[in-house]
Amino acid sequence: xxxxxxxxxxxxxxxxxxxxxxxxxxxxxxxxxxxxxxxxxxxxxxxxxxxxxxxxxxxxxxxxxxxxxxxxxxxxxxxxxxxxxxxxxxxxxxxxxxxxxxxxxxx
Length: 107
Hints:
By secondary structure, the protein is α+β, with helices and mostly antiparallel strands. Helix content is 39%, strand content 27%.
């Protein structure tokens, strides 16, 4: 029911996947707010000057937009910008877009 209502009003979850645990970090309203939220989270979590990857579902434009905006923010291109696998896309939805960064070591 929550997913149906969220889809109806355009809520999109921003999910972190750290050490095998998933956590909804934020919910944004509308597709146009996804990339800025991912940029903010990635920049906050990322160790400066480390490689990063951009992953996307069936919509190449989402991946290209995220890669371009990340490059503007950090000053260099991703080491990989590729289509995510079917198993993840089926569960997360075909509009998925993600950035994988190396964060600082946790205790």
